[in-house]
Amino acid sequence: MTVRIGVIGTGAIGRDHTRRISQVLAGGEIVALTDVNRTSAEKVKAEVAKTAEIFETGEALIASPKVDAVLITSWGATHEQYALAAIAAGKPCFCEKPLATTAEGAKRIVEAEVKHGKRLVQVGFMRRYDAGYVALKQAVGAKIGAPILVHAAHRNPTVPEQYVTPMAIHDTLIHEIDVLRWLLDDDYVSARVLYPRKAARSHAKLRDPQIVLLETKKGVLIDVEIFVNCHYGYDIQCEIVGEDGVAKLPEPMAVKTRLAATLQNPILTDWKDRFIDSYDVELRDFLKAAAGGGVAGPSSWDGYLAAITSDACVAAQEREGEPVAIATPARPALYN
Ligand code: NAI
Ligand code: ISE
């Protein structure tokens, strides 16, 4: 069966996922597009989805009988309204991270899905599909003994002007929040944020870089550096220290050169390239489950727990250095 897909938000990742479904993956067809900026939807239609119909609103796209399943790739603060509309329509939806920009918003999605009685939302936590993270998880389980410490870094070369301090958490750190909970099979109990001096490339509304310290129920201490104006590249690092050894996330494949008396190893600069395979695999998973009318992969529950932690980290940003407690609610049976 070919799943007929509608895409809400045709910016950077909406365009890339549209290209992926149209040109790379089997099992899906982009039949509908919408964006508050109609010109963007028209451009994406012309480039990678020639037969798609352009809808005036996300709600109209979700309601259309032409659309079997939905991709929500608009700005984070708009995800909740579309996820709720997709659940109300009984249609599977792939919602880019964050599920919602607050825990309250994410909770409303969980409650709607539980009421509906069936999972309909996959959250775009693509790192769970990344071959490097999957290998790291295997090493943590089988080789290095029980984890004690995690050192991680999330570095972007640059971010747009409208990127402000809390986005370092709900737009950027949200990836580590989810993938480390999954890697360690653990939950968070507290968060702290520390700031060094502000980097020269930052701006008035962005404290960059920053260090987030997370503590887990099993007693693991995690430090994550978030540096979104690091300039030199897109660099994701993760090292886990266990009882018996240390496991490190592999570097992306790159050709080393020996030139002009220098040994060089290139570093990627764009998240689209760094996780290109993981996006393919997560959407293949989505298309497969959506063909049967459901979803698999990271759930609304995962999105909700990430949002609870994200809210705590934003509060910790405002209380520099002070710990903020994180409580994990009881899991509804739907997500067992
Ligand atoms: P973007 O700004 O390039 O594109 C967002 C698009 O959504 C814009 O064209 C905008 O006009 C449109 N839009 C905004 N509000 C809308 C609404 N209410 N209805 C319809 N369209 C609307 O942003 P980008 O980078 O594509 O990010 C989009 C989402 O994807 C964000 O939630 C972001 O966190 C997530 N993302 C995930 C990545 C990952 O690695 N998984 C990578 C980049 C983005
Ligand atoms: C962006 O939205 C992403 O999800 C990227 O993976 C992340 O590195 C970046 O910081 C976010 O802004």
Question: What would the keywords be for this entry?
Answer:
alpha/beta; Rossmann fold; Dihydrodipicolinate Reductase, domain 2; 2 domains; seven-stranded mixed β-sheet; six-stranded parallel β-sheet; 10 helices; 37% helix; binds 1,4-dihydronicotinamide adenine dinucleotide; binds (2R,3S,4s,5R,6S)-2,3,4,5,6-pentahydroxycyclohexanone
Global morphology: globular
In whole angstroms, how far apart are the ends? 28 Å
Radius of gyration of CA atoms, rounded to a whole number: 20 Å
Unreliable stretches (pLDDT < 50, length at least 5) are none
CATH architecture of the largest domain: 2-Layer Sandwich
Topology pattern, helix = H, strand = E? EHEHEHEHEHEHEHEEEEEEEHHHE
Counting structural domains, the number is: 2
The total count of helices amounts to 10
- What does the main sheet amount to? 7 strands, mixed
Any idea what the CATH superfamily of the largest domain is called? Dihydrodipicolinate Reductase, domain 2
Structural class: alpha/beta
Binned strand content: 15-25%
Query: What bound compounds does this protein have?
Result: 1,4-dihydronicotinamide adenine dinucleotide, (2R,3S,4s,5R,6S)-2,3,4,5,6-pentahydroxycyclohexanone
Provide the residue-averaged pLDDT. Answer: 97
**CATH overall fold name of the largest domain:** Dihydrodipicolinate Reductase, domain 2
Fraction of residues in helices?
25-40%
